[in-house]
C-alpha cells in the first residue's frame, strides 16, 4: 500500500467526505447523502465508527437549511413583511392566530367555512 497501511484502500476519500458534508449541509438524509457520494450506507457507518464525532457533525450540517429558513423568515418580519408576519403567527401561536376550518352541511353538500374570532370570513 502506498500509505504503508495493510488492507484495502480507504473507500471514503477526502473527496467523498466533502460530498457527504455538502449533501448534509443541503439537508439530505444519510441515504440521500450516501447516494450523492456514491458509497454504501455500511461504508458511511463504518467510517463514522472510525471517526468519532463525524456523525454528530453531519447531523449539525443537516440543520443548516432549517436555520437559514428561520433566518429568512425573521429577516422578512424585521423588514415589515405583513404576510410573513401573519403566516408565522398562525403557525407559532395557533390558539391565538390560526384560522379554524369548520365543515357545515348545506343542501346535502359539505361547505367549508373559515371562522376567526367568532366571525365568518
Question: Can you walk me through this structure?
Answer:
This protein has 121 residues and is an alpha+beta fold. Helix content is 57%, strand content 14%. The chain contains seven helices and three strands, in the order H-H-H-H-H-H-H-E-E-E. The chain has helices spanning 14-25, 30-37, 41-50, 54-62, 64-78, 82-92, 94-97; strands at residues 100-106, 109-116, 119-120. A three-stranded antiparallel β-sheet has the order 1-2-3, with no helix packed on it. Strand 1 (100-106) and strand 2 form a beta hairpin. The longest helix has 15 residues, at 64-78. It is elongated and about 80 Å long. 7% of the residues are buried. The model has no long low-confidence stretch (mean pLDDT 85).
Name the features:
121 residues, elongated, alpha+beta, three-stranded antiparallel sheet
Secondary structure topology:
Elements (H helix, E strand, L loop, with lengths): L13 H12 L4 H8 L3 H10 L3 H9 L1 H15 L3 H11 L1 H4 L2 E7 L2 E8 L2 E2 L1
Antiparallel strand pairs: 1-2, 2-3
Helix pairs in contact: 1-2, 1-4
Secondary-structure element pattern, one letter each: HHHHHHHEEE
The protein's oligomeric status is single chain
Radius of gyration equals 25 Å
Helix content: 55-70%
Taking the alpha carbons of the first and last residues, their distance comes to 74 Å
Summarize the structure.
This protein has helices at 14-25, 30-37, 41-50, 54-62, 64-78, 82-92, 94-97; strands spanning 100-106, 109-116, 119-120. With 121 residues, the chain is α+β, with helices and mostly antiparallel strands.
